Amino acid sequence: MKNNIRNKLVTEKLKQHAMNEKKSLAVGLVLSLIRTGMEILGPLVIGFILNNYIKINIERKDFISILKLLGVYLIAYLLSGLFSNLAIISFEKAANKIAFSIQKEVYQHVTKLPISYFDTLPSGSIVSRITNDTNKLKTMFQLVLSDITTSAIMVVSLYLMILITNFAVGIMLLILLPLVYIIFRDLRYKTAKYTTLTRNYIGDINSSINENIQNIEIIKSFVKEDYIKDEFDKTNKKIFDTNLEITKVRSYGGYRAIDIVSYLGTVIVLLYFGVGKITSAYAVTIGSMYIVIDYVTKIFNNINTIVTRFGEVEQSYASASHIFNLLELKQVKEQQGRIKNIIGDVRFESVYFAYGEEDVLKDISFEVKSGETIAFVGSTGSGKSTIINLILSFYSPRLGNIYIDDKNIKDINENSLREEMSVVLQDAFIFETDIKDNIVLGDARFTDEDVKKALIDVGGEELVKRGINQKVFEKGNNLSQGEKQLISFARSYIRNPKILILDEATSNIDTETEKAIQKGIQKLKEDRTTFIIAHRLSTIRDVDKIIVLHKGRIIEKGNHKSLMIEDGFYKNMYDEQMRNQ
Predict the structure, then answer these.
(1) pLDDT(484) > 90
(2) Which candidate, 29, 233, 308, 523, has a CA 20 to 30 Å from the CA of 417?
(3) Where is the signal peptide (predicted)?
(4) How far apart, in whole angstroms, are the C-alpha atoms of residue 533 and residue 486?
(5) Residues with Cβ within 8 Å of residue 202, at least 6 apart in sequence
(6) Among 88-97, 106-115, 126-135, 437-446, where is mean pLDDT lowest?
(7) Which long-range contacts link 178-183 to residues 24+ away (Cβ below 8 Å)?
(8) How far apart are CA 236 and CA 138, in angstroms?
């Protein structure tokens, strides 16, 4: 019941998208009807020749008439091919436009989903939905619009012609209808079963490939290539097996079974005309028999196309369902409130937050004034990064409020808010482009000189000397960790944010490199409110405020000097790090 409801919803959505291309579809439909007319005309011409001109003593005038009629047949045949091609082009055009609009809608929708969605779904699955699923959906429209629609028109039109030219044969052929239905139903059921399995396995293998490529260093370091290969082979074997079952089903349903029914149809026609000839109970002509046999053959050829194509449609239908499931996920509600030229005051009031059932932040309250620097320290899982995620409005508090310049951020448009902020993350993400594009990120406001100045100001003189148009490899593999972080600093600095967030920005680089880029860090912090998640406590001795977190609660507040005098959790952490160094 639930699947039927779901299928109806998917069908309705597909219809809505199809209606956006109704002009191309209407043109394709008209061209298909003309093509069908030509297909009907051809056998009628040959049947007329057989009945009226094929005889023992053919006269010259009969021969000339035959040539003229064969000319008509040739023209009908050529026009049939022409209009068939034009119809396919029209349907293909509509299918591509529909797929394009759906793919565009899916991508735009994904970019507006809450961050929590990406926490639970592997990136490989997201990529698969945007690319593979939409491509399969395009294939479905191509099959439905081009092959199934034109074949259905042919079947209906040819059967009506059989009823017109030989009503008795048309009625007798209805005997075969239950067989066609049984084959169609069985094929569709089995195809749906195996294609669903295949689709799930492909999603698994895409996620696995994406994960393995991202972590190839770990796999090689622990010599786990064979283990990963075995896991891949297991899933790949499942895909092979289910695809083999689909092939068997299509072979039986789409070819052998329909061929047998077509054979039975031909037998019915021959028996009818044979009985008529022997008994003289009704008029029988060779031309009429040719017409009916030709029409019956074409009918079952087109039924064959419909049945086999419907099996392929089932594959695409599963992808369509996947896409529309994605489109039903609720987007982040876009607030209308805008914030510009902020001062940079930030205040947390009794904030509670949970990713699941258990709170990871509990009664968090603090205030930082414009231009101040505040650092968060604590053990792993204490809630440091979560506070940053809340400031950036990636998540919303379960309880409590967050204010920027006395404005509650839940009432502020996320893009408007983030335009006033900039982030330097622990892992400097570098795009596969040049250094300049990695800094400006497509923003046309910034010139080459702006980029060079930003790099120089944050300590990246060497990168400027090498050239800002230097190509960067995937993941920045031709740059050192320090160079990648300098690009991140310049990316933030060039935008002149009012609020700066440094999320353990130096934890992945060595001490010597960290000293070299301290100029960049200090330049970044000038005249702006700065939030620092600190790993090395030696780097935050001069900040205005330090907040110590433990299991989601604030246990200590102060600056470095006052917390050292307090002789508590912070001092123990600091002393331990100094001993280790």
Answers:
(1) no
(2) 523
(3) none
(4) 18
(5) 128, 132, 239
(6) 126-135
(7) 179/261, 179/264, 180/258, 180/261, 180/303, 180/307, 183/253, 183/257, 183/258, 183/261, 183/307
(8) 25
Same fold, 2-328 and 346-580: no
Q: Look at the alpha carbons of 428, 431, 434, 439 in this order and tell me if their dihedral is positive or negative.
A: negative
Q: Taking the domain 2-328, which CATH number applies?
A: 1.20.1560.10
Distance CA 538, CA 547 (A): 15
- Between the CA of residue 112 and those of 203, 320, 327, 443, what are the distances in Å? 22, 20, 11, 20
Q: Token pair of 424, please?
A: 């330097």
311 burial via Cβ count (<10 Å: 0-12, 13-18, 19+): buried
**Residue 303, CA distances (Å) to 128, 152, 179, 258, 560 in order:** 33, 8, 12, 8, 81
Spell out the alpha helix ranges (H) of 20-59: 22-52
Tokens of 402: 């967050």
pLDDT higher than 90, residue 75:
yes
Q: Say whether 559 sits in a helix, a strand or coil.
A: coil
Task: List the domain boundaries for the chain.
Answer: 2-328, 346-580
Phi, psi of 452 (to 5 degrees): -65, -45
74-88, 154-168, 524-538, 558-572, range with the lowest pLDDT: 524-538
Helix, strand, or coil (residue 352):
strand
User: Which residue pairs, CB below 8 angstroms and at least 24 apart, start in 114-122?
Assistant: 114/330, 114/331, 114/332, 114/394, 114/395, 115/389, 115/394, 115/395, 116/355, 116/395, 117/329, 119/355, 122/207, 122/210, 122/211
Name the residue among 424, 505, 435, 421 with its Cα closest to residue 465. Answer: 435
- Judge contact between 231 and 208, C-beta under 8 A: yes
Taken as a whole, the chain contains a residue count of: 581
Burial of 414 (0-12, 13-18, 19+ CB in 10 A): middle
Instruction: For residues 383-406, give the mean pLDDT.
Output: 89
pLDDT the model gives residue 1: 47
Beta bridge partners of 337: 412
Strands 421-424 and 499-503: parallel
Segment 5-11 long-range contacts (CB within 8 Å, at least 24 positions apart)? 6/321, 7/317, 7/321, 9/324, 10/317, 10/320, 10/321, 10/324
pLDDT in tens, 259-271: 888 889 989 998 9
> 470-473 — which CB contacts under 8 Å span 24+ positions?
470/434, 470/435, 471/433, 471/434, 472/430, 472/431, 472/432, 472/433, 472/434, 472/435, 472/438, 473/432
pLDDT value for 357: 82
Distance CA 136, CA 316 (A): 5
The arrangement of secondary structure in 346-580, i.e. its CATH architecture, is 3-Layer(aba) Sandwich (3.40)
Nearest-CA neighbor of 316 among 164, 136, 145?
A: 136
Q: What is the Rg, in whole angstroms, of the alpha carbon atoms belonging to the chain?
A: 36
Q: Quick one: which of 296, 314, 316, 292 has its CA closest to 304?
A: 296
Q: Are 506 and 345 a contacting pair, CB within 8 Å?
A: no
User: Taking the mean position of all CA atoms in its chain, how far away is CA 114?
Assistant: 16
Phi, psi of 56 (to 5 degrees): -65, -50
Compare 359 and 480 and report the one with higher pLDDT.
359
Pairing of strands 359-368, 399-404: unpaired
